[in-house]
Amino acid sequence: MTSAPPPAPRRRSGATARIVLGVAGGIAAYKACEVLRRLTEAGHSVRVIPTESALNFVGAATFEALSSQPVRTGVFEDIPEVAHVRLGQQAELVVVAPATADLLSRAARGRADDLLTATLLTARCPVLFVPAMHTEMWLHPATQDNVALLRSRGLTVMEPASGRLTGVDSGPGRLPEPAEIAELARLLLERPDALPHDLSGRRIVVSAGGTREPLDPVRFLGNRSSGLQGFALARVAAQRGAEVTLVAAHTAELAAPAGVRMVHASTAASLREAMLAEAAEAEVVVMAAAVADFRPAQQADHKIKKTAAGPPTITLETNPDILVELVGKRRDGQLIVGFAAETGDETGDVLHHGRAKLARKGCDLLVVNAVGEGRTFEQPDNAGWLLSADGTEVELPSGSKALLASRVWDAVARRSPV
Ligand code: C5P
């Protein structure tokens, strides 16, 4: 008689989870230590399962010390605990970083020739593979077929970053930054189905960060935008298969999202120019940047000096509204998403102001965030509403900025491609 496989372990309430961190044998294995540290510092209980070859790069003692848990590689250790079954069954998330070409191949075939692959077969929780290998190996049809097969089974295989590889080579195949891996791990714990590969081939441009409007060579008018929400939008879209360009103004120090093309801007004028150029080719445009509404009418070419006459008077002039301009130049079928940071006042609540802004700006979707009292700005978490021009309103529950991004992409994915 056959019995049904045991169900996936239910997520316990609270922020901490049982995570398995698989480490395959590539040079990027040393970065797994940083991923591990981030996961344990977030309060998770992390069991590291390296492959035998991973231990050529990082010793078991390092993983044991950082995780406070034993480290095994084979199925013939800890026999009484049946570790090759239990670890997978109990895991609430499996992260494999780095996932080498060989590991992806063994996982795709369903091999169980070591503790890590056996664990992958028994796990029923979300699995996040983070590839790292040379460009040729990543682009090889064998690897691409394995990746497609794993994705078709509902597992997440990250797009690798592009950049410096071992030796002098450079190209796609670099391990994404540990901060980015930790962000996506958190996202999958918040929402196991947050990363379907459903935006494949969609061309998306996202703006992020705050503009700076110079007053003189050393001073500017700026704002507190960290860029976190726009980066999360770009990151999640790229991991859902989209071709993403991120037009980044000034941000906190953030990891560049893997698989995303970056364009830099500084002032509202330069952001406008970049957005108009990029939007001409894009199917979806998201304005998450905090654009200064005003700029100094004059920019001094020397540092403005203190004088006995007292402080200078600064005259401001209005910047163009880029979102409104993008809506005016919208291509056929193009979807435009705006953001609104609102507070309630005596004339209405946050949603009331959001609805009015959606009508005024003319975009298709508007993400409305309640701000003030330490909410949203420079914070890792966000919440709000997603208002649609067709009158639909969806509440976006509190969670990571990546979680909010995943809800926005759900709404975009539901609309058919141009
Ligand atoms: O009017 P408000 O600044 O609240 O609108 C916010 C939305 O408009 C955001 O999507 C922001 O990126 C965009 N915006 C813009 N150009 C401006 C000001 C805001 O595109 N000058």
UniProtKB/TrEMBL annotation:
Catalytic activity: N-[(R)-4-phosphopantothenoyl]-L-cysteine + H(+) = (R)-4'-phosphopantetheine + CO2; (R)-4'-phosphopantothenate + L-cysteine + CTP = N-[(R)-4-phosphopantothenoyl]-L-cysteine + CMP + diphosphate + H(+)
Gene3D superfamilies per record: CoaB-like, Flavin prenyltransferase-like
InterPro entries recorded: CoaB-like_sf (IPR035929), CoaBC (IPR005252), DNA/pantothenate-metab_flavo_C (IPR007085), Flavin_trans-like (IPR036551), Flavoprotein (IPR003382)
Domain of life, per lineage: Bacteria
GO MF entries: ligase activity
Ranges where the record places region Phosphopantothenoylcysteine decarboxylase: 1-203
Cofactor requirements of the protein: FMN; Mg(2+)
Region (Phosphopantothenate--cysteine ligase) residue spans: 204-418
Keywords assigned: Decarboxylase, Flavoprotein, FMN, Ligase, Lyase, Magnesium, Metal-binding, Multifunctional enzyme
Enzyme Commission code: 4.1.1.36, 6.3.2.5
Cofactor note as given: Binds 1 FMN per subunit.
Signal peptide range: none
Listed transmembrane segments: none
Stretches assigned to the DNA/pantothenate metabolism flavoprotein C-terminal domain: 199-413
Domain Flavoprotein, residue spans: 18-183
Residues that coordinate or bind CTP: D293, K303, P320, D321, I322, L323, F339, K357, K361
Keyword Lyase: yes
Pathway listed: Cofactor biosynthesis; coenzyme A biosynthesis; CoA from (R)-pantothenate: step 2/5; Cofactor biosynthesis; coenzyme A biosynthesis; CoA from (R)-pantothenate: step 3/5
UniProt family annotation: In the N-terminal section; belongs to the HFCD (homo-oligomeric flavin containing Cys decarboxylase) superfamily.
Record's function text: Catalyzes two steps in the biosynthesis of coenzyme A. In the first step cysteine is conjugated to 4'-phosphopantothenate to form 4-phosphopantothenoylcysteine, in the latter compound is decarboxylated to form 4'-phosphopantotheine.
PANTHER family: HOMO-OLIGOMERIC FLAVIN CONTAINING CYS DECARBOXYLASE FAMILY, PHOSPHOPANTOTHENOYLCYSTEINE DECARBOXYLASE
Protein name: Coenzyme A biosynthesis bifunctional protein CoaBC
Organism name: Pseudonocardia eucalypti
